[in-house]
Design brief:
Blueprint: H1 26-32, H2 35-41, H3 59-68, E1 69-70, E2 85-90, E3 93-97, H4 99-106, H5 130-135, H6 146-153, H7 156-160, H8 167-183, H9 194-200, H10 203-208
Antiparallel strand pairs: 1-2, 2-3
Length: about 210
């Protein structure tokens, strides 16, 4: 008899999980980039993500993780990390998923500080990001939302060169949507951290984050 078969019905509870990330948007984003723009994108820290094959949420995998999540084992000698998760894979084997493990699996960078403000000048948070000002010329203030950049990527002329946008700015728009919508799961009317947009003004600096 398995461990779960000993549990009473009252030990279970019904739950509904909503996954707001939109990894499936990646296919559409990839189709917008020209050959030159794709080369520029491949020089960023997100270069692998436009080539992922599986772009849908796997309910069975999420159910497995939730069903097997446990508290940090008392006998663990690893240094505790913020926001770490533990899972029981077998009866005698547990695994940890922290920031280091996440970056190892996703090929993203792992650094000592994930605060945007440590990578940009302190006064920039009060001004308009240069890149956002160029691609959204008529935007009246610093309150940029996901939908503003979503509208850009749906515009064929924006990426075709007919609108006289630089290839670098096209790549910046792609990164905004990849991070904010695909990864973080923000909705169209959600605000974007102004410091994140300032960081994108310098793609080399963006690649050093965090």
């Amino acid at each position: 008899m398995s461990d779960t078969e000993d549990l009473l019905h009252g030990d279970y509870f019904e739950a509904k999980i909503t996954c707001r990330n939109k990894i499936k948007r990646i296919k559409f984003i990839r189709s917008r980039l020209s050959t030159q723009q794709r080369k520029l994108f491949d020089n960023t820290c997100f270069r692998y993500w436009l080539d992922i094959k599986f772009q849908h949420t796997d309910p069975g995998y999420i159910h497995f993780l939730l069903q097997n999540q446990i508290s940090r084992p008392a006998e663990c000698k690893l240094k505790e990390e913020p926001e770490e998760l533990w899972f029981k894979v077998t009866s005698d084997y547990n695994i940890r998923c922290g920031r280091r493990e996440f970056c190892l699996v996703t090929s993203m960078r792992f650094g000592p500080n994930a605060n945007f403000k440590h990578y940009i000048d302190g006064d920039k948070g009060k001004t308009k990001p240069r890149f956002a000002s160029r691609v959204l010329k008529n935007h009246p203030n610093n309150r940029f939302k996901v939908e503003h950049f979503l509208n850009l990527i749906k515009d064929k002329d924006f990426f075709s060169g007919n609108d006289k946008r630089s290839d670098e700015d096209c790549v910046r728009v792609v990164i905004v949507l990849l991070v904010q919508e695909c990864f973080l799961g923000k909705m169209p009317r959600d605000r974007i951290d102004i410091n994140f947009l300032h960081l994108l003004d310098d793609l080399n600096l963006m690649n050093q984050f965090p």
